[in-house]
Amino acid sequence: MDRRPLTVSRGPFGSSSAGEVVADAKLLEGEQRVFERMADGAELKPVLEEIARLCGRHSRHHTLYAVLLANEAGDRLDVAAAPGLPPEYFGFAAGTLVAADSNPCGVAAWSKQPVMVEDFASDPRWADMRARAEALGVRAGWSMPILSQRGRLLGTFAAYSKEPARPAPQDVALMERFAHIARIAIEKHHAERTIERMTNYDGLTGLPNRSLMLDNLDDTLLRKESDIAFLLFNLDSMKQINDTLGYEFGDRCIQAMAERLGEHVGHGMLARVGGDEFGMVLAGADIGPGMTERVRALLEGITQPLNVDERTVFLTASLGISIGPRDGADADTLFKHADVALHRAKQRGRNGFQFFEAAMNAPAARRLALLGELRHALERGEFRVYYQPQVEVASGEMTGAEALLRWKNPEQGEVSPAEFIPLLEETGLILTVGEWVLEQVCRDLVRLQEAGLRPPRLAVNLSARQFMQPDLAERIEATLARHHISPDSITLEITETLLMRDPADAEHMLKRLKAVNVRIALDDFGTGYSSLAYLKRFPVDELKVDKSFISGVTQSTADAAITDTVIRLAHNLGMQVLAEGVEHEAQRSFLEVHGCDRMQGYLTGRPMDMDAFRARIESGAAHGARPDPGSHSPGAPAAR
Amino acid sequence: MQMEAKRPLRTVLVDDYPPLLAALATLLRTYRGVEIVGRANSGKDGLKLIDEHKPDLVLVDFSMPDIDGVAVTRRLKAGPKPPKVVVMSFHAEPEYRDMAMHAGADAYLVKTELYHELVPLLERIAV
Asked: Does A339 fall in a domain?
């Protein structure tokens, strides 16, 4: 059916110049009111309704006006305002196709020309509309396209009359005048939407951005309808993808992941909150007891292969979760806490998740568990003493070993000394455990001697609490005597920090220990603040240069200078020097060139249990001094 | 009454973080003043257990997703013959302590200090 407007009613209506609107004061006043409402930021629909109503009041016939808006694609129209028209009209006009064989509005939109039907009842070209027109009680229908300044279709402005009517020039002029005002309202609305999109949405994925999500989160929290969960995702390997496959490909991965997450968000809200970070807000039935399972399923979904540009990529994400309001009553706090949880999830390895509450609880629970287990560790025989060789830098001969405490608990597994030794200190258990270590070292020495071996001197660490025991020297002397151990086969290692806490007392205690005839080494030298005045008065046999300097001697001129200076200082004060944490041959040769006496580190042996240590002593006795064959140094080979 | 004071406090532990429950149980295993009669992973289960066992003492976590420690305290203290209630949390801020105490808690403990403070506190409460 050809309904092209040229054949419908071109003639006198082709040009609006034929008609003129009598712009009386009332009309101008009404128009001004419309513009004021627009300026006040009123919603589009009420403004369009007011335009339609105002137009109706100033038309000659008893005519009702409507505004239809085009969708984004410009292929369909929907009613935005139709004051006075019966409810059926909305049904008839909803989803009007923009096409040559559509209803008058659809044709006007398609042709971008006015379409004027004088009488649906008699016009054969609109016979299929007759029943609908009758149902609405309408005989005439005129429609005028609303076009943007650039000629893009925005919608249509329609007029309906109960009587058959041929539009007079002034009718057309009136419609044109109001279609123009409607155009301004619609374009303003579009501009506002664009601005909103640009400020609130992410350009790459079209998802809400961080600021919109935070606003939304705050609104949801204010409504207090239920608990809400805020999930913060961080894609684990985006940097790698960007670096190896390029940013464009990386961007498409982000888009694909946004789509993937969208499949899981349900009634929640998904946002892109950072380069490789997404936020998700869930509420109501989505959270609660089944939440953990849901989160697991979500992470599972993320790890499914993604097809991007005919490539298959596997992405994983780490996830931090905070629950409002218990973890925070406002969006910023919830976000921050989800970030804390995310950080912890990442620490525990990728592709995992962590709740904020648990993240906060975990250290407290671990501390409590370790403290609980530590109390019984000694009686249950959970401690072991390991030995790390100390060798002559020049010859490689093992002339000592440091005794190191190890703890393996059936519940907690192997616990790092960095974690449990402070707890031993805190609880005071270090006193009994420290005594046990010295006893164990004595027993080991006796065993080695009884096996006919010549064990090297063994070094035992003294803690702060032990050092403050007034009868420490006597205790040590008694222990050594009980095992028939010669005091000069034992070195006591005391940290620089501990000695300098109260140097006068320390000097006194050191002199008493020295009187027992044990050897004394100053541990971690260079990490604390030493008073050289005291250093020269301390009866110290050896300075242990901290590993933080040794690790840098071959790269940093400063570390090299410090190490060199400490070696000279020690020698000038009549002390020996031991370098800690030696891992590479290059470090060893630096130490040799600079006259360092001894060293300790992975290059010449990791801490080892008694059996391995004994084997090491035996091999040393059989083959002379050699570097540790079992050490796997990450750098240069240990051969010399 | 004096004879009864020697009897261990029958205790229910409520916390939604299982490792903390386990650690608490380890800590209290060797303390004679307490006998653990039940452990629960949520406020709801906790209230059910408490109703069942009528304990002398409840150690309850401040933050739980279903019924939090403050709500649990309030409910227990509204009933007849309420148990002693200790609310535990990782929050050291006074606001949290106040919330727990206003709800009727007998004490508030910061979780990082449990090891050193719990037993002395139980000694005080048992009297």
From this structure: yes
